[in-house]
């Protein structure tokens, strides 16, 4: 019938991957995981944070993201589509968490850029494993985009598909930054396009960082628990990256609007019991 658009026909494996990606992207659960680790709500940790914490987090997040954007615009590896090394990157972040647990909140300006850089490497590694070219500016900015994903508890049905709401909110900032970087080739921290991109991502990433810090503020959290919290922190963004780049891989094959429509039509599935990612983890 004229005017009727046929729905895209994914393979059964691809449809399973998209369902899995939707489960990941719509169920971040970072705060819940840290609460389960500590045995107490992280809201208690927020009450224990020192005055001026919000300002320090804000400055540290922006500084870390600026450095991460600079790293993201460099070549991060080959295009070879091999499994990502998720565990290796978790070891790096776990170690930095142990150091931060020893020195406390004052170590944030040093520890956050290091852990964020390690997360970028892992996010890029996952993008590569999903078939994306790390030399492409689009992929580099998509890696940075992952830092804005997640960080909210599961909500009512009218809060579903937050993934697309977040992407739509970042679309203009990413487009402007892409145009600027394509023309200039360097990251200028004072350029309006770069400032707007960092601000858009920092607004969401800062919330997740604050949750992480609040968890570490809970009494009796020492170096070992700080390391465990960092591992959960890293695992959260690895999950978001896996879901994000699965969606983007399917978008390249079938079209962005087609995959978005199909994604939205899929009921949020129950949590899979077999594994945490759409592809094997090594």
| Oligomer classification | single chain
Tally of domains: 1
Any idea what the shape is? globular
Q: Bin the helical content.
A: 55-70%
Major sheet description: none
List the secondary-structure elements in sequence, H or E: HHHHHHHHHHH
Radius of gyration (CA) equals: 19 Å
Low-confidence stretches: 1-5, 97-103, 153-158, 274-282
Question: Termini separation (Å)?
Answer: 48 Å
Count of DSSP-assigned helices: 11
- In what range is the share of β-strand residues? under 5%
- What average pLDDT do the residues reach? 78
**Strand runs, count:** 0
Structural class: mainly alpha
Would you kindly provide a written description of the structure presented here, covering whatever features stand out?
- This protein has one domain (12-265).
- The longest helix is centred in the last third of the chain and has 32 residues, at 223-254.
- It has helices at 12-26, 30-38, 43-48, 53-72, 86-103, 108-129, 137-145, 162-184, 192-217, 223-254, 256-265.
- It is an all-alpha fold.
- Helix 2 (30-38) runs antiparallel to helix 10 (223-254) and helix 6 (108-129) runs parallel beside helix 10 (223-254).
- 67% of the residues lie in helices and 0% in strands.
- It is globular and about 55 Å long.
Task: List strands and helices in order, with pairings.
Elements: H1 12-26, H2 30-38, H3 43-48, H4 53-72, H5 86-103, H6 108-129, H7 137-145, H8 162-184, H9 192-217, H10 223-254, H11 256-265
Helix pairs in contact: 1-10, 2-9, 2-10, 4-6, 4-7, 4-9, 5-6, 5-10, 6-7, 6-10, 7-8, 8-9, 10-11
């Amino acid at each position: 019938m004229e005017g009727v658009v046929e729905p895209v026909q994914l393979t059964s494996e691809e449809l399973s991957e998209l369902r899995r990606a939707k489960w990941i992207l719509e169920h971040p659960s970072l705060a819940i995981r840290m609460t389960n680790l500590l045995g107490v709500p992280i809201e208690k940790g927020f009450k224990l944070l020192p005055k001026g914490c919000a300002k320090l987090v804000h400055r540290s997040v922006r500084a870390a993201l600026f450095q991460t954007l600079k790293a993201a615009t460099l070549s991060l590896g080959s295009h070879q589509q091999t499994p990502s090394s998720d565990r290796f990157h978790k070891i790096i972040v776990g170690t930095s968490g142990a150091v931060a647990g020893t020195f406390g909140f004052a170590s944030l300006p040093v520890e956050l850029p290091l852990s964020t850089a390690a997360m970028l490497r892992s996010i890029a590694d996952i993008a590569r494993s999903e078939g994306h070219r790390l030399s492409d500016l689009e992929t580099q900015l998509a890696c940075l985009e992952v830092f804005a994903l997640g960080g909210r508890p599961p909500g009512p049905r009218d809060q579903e598909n937050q993934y697309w709401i977040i992407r739509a909110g970042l679309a203009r900032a990413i487009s402007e930054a892409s145009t600027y970087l394509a023309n200039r080739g360097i990251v200028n921290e004072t350029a309006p396009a770069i400032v707007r991109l960092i601000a858009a991502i920092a607004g969401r990433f800062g919330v997740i960082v604050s949750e992480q810090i609040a968890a570490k503020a809970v009494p009796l959290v020492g170096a070992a628990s700080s390391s465990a919290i960092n591992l959960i922190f890293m695992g959260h963004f690895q999950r978001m990256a896996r879901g994000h780049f699965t969606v983007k891989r399917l978008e390249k094959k079938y079209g962005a609007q087609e995959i978005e429509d199909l994604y939205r039509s899929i009921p949020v599935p129950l949590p899979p019991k077999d594994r945490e990612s759409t592809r094997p983890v090594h």
